[in-house]
Amino acid sequence: MENKVLQELQAEFPHVIRLGEPMQDHTSFRLGGPAAAMAIPNSIKQLQDILVFCRAHKLPIFIMGNGSNLLVRDGGIRAVVIKIAGAMSTVTLTEAGMEAEAGISLSALAHTAVEAGLGGLEFAAGIPGTLGGAVVMNAGAYGGEMKDVVDFVLALDYEGREHRFNANEMNFGYRQSAIQGKELTVVKVGLRLPEQDPAVSRALISDYNARRRAKQPLHLPSAGSVFKRPPGHYAGQLIEEAGLKGKRIGGAQVSPMHAGFIVNVGNATASDVEALIRHVQETVAAKFGVRLETEVRIVGESIRPVAGETRTADEHI
Ligand SMILES: Cc1cc2nc3c(=O)[nH]c(=O)nc-3n(C[C@H](O)[C@H](O)[C@H](O)COP(=O)(O)OP(=O)(O)OC[C@H]3O[C@@H](n4cnc5c(N)ncnc54)[C@H](O)[C@@H]3O)c2cc1C
After folding, report:
1. Which domains does the chain have, with CATH numbers?
2. Model pLDDT, residue 1
3. Helices (H), the chain
4. Labelling 139: which of 14, 168, 196, 298 has CA 20 to 30 A away?
5. What is the pLDDT of residue 303?
6. Which residues of the chain have pLDDT under 70?
7. Which of 225, 229, 255, 274 is catalytic?
């Protein structure tokens, strides 16, 4: 990627583009090398213009939300990382419930719903991502998932064209959606939410939050549960029974509080985390014959190739 083109991009969108932006400032793991460039668009129109510019100049694109499910490798991301978080967060009430832009935090969205007397999003109040990221991941907790509340999704392709998906076209599954691995950016989501007494919603949210605080190492940087739940098992339980609770490689540790989490206990590198992920996968496979798949999305470039490294579909950046 030529520096000259990145500088043109910055000149075209002043105050919106940062060059060589450290990804550790944008991920809940607090690690990861630099993005070649980062754009934080203020509006859908500006996002469209940035996508069109990148396409016209053949700049690779990587879309992120709040970085709470991302492990960015130490060599960083050789692409224009477009962060849909912070900005692009307007919400409007509709007959069915609400329509919101993808950059709003799930927590803010859930609390807005409560204040409007709408239920259904209580499960999402403690998930630290954006609405867009939650739709892509079909995020869920405490028996709820995005699939239960999404009515429709508006997404832009990398040419800036709009596509609308009704809920049944989203192919939602466990931590799965039709958007994953595609050249699409979620920009707006319609939510179908039933009326609910705010006092009931508030009580549910505070119960879920208390359960989270009691079970999860929220005081340390992480990306939540690293592995998907394998059919018929719980990842955390298998990892604990394999004797790996507290196992440490460099600054990465299998949380002594919740074995499904890997935490950054200080200056962890992405290669520490990846090495620990592999160690957990190999130990659990050898002991129980169960292959643990990562829920966390691993992206970017290694500084040194890691032995046995494999990449999945969306890790081409
Ligand atoms: C402490 C902690 C607790 C957690 N608890 C839960 C939990 O209970 N349940 C759960 O499901 N998850 C949980 N997570 C994981 C994470 O919060 C969710 O996966 C969340 O939905 C990710 O949203 P994000 O905005 O941070 O997305 P990111 O991590 O930035 O991105 C995740 C994926 O979505 C893509 N993406 C993001 N935004 C867009 C967009 N607008 N358009 C297109 N693609 C996009 C990215 O390319 C990437 O592939 C937890 C994480 C932490 C750190």
Report:
1. 3-83 (3.30.43.10), 91-200 (3.30.465.10), 217-299 (3.90.78.10)
2. 74
3. 3-12, 44-56, 106-115, 131-137, 198-215, 235-241, 270-288
4. 196
5. 84
6. 304-317
7. 225
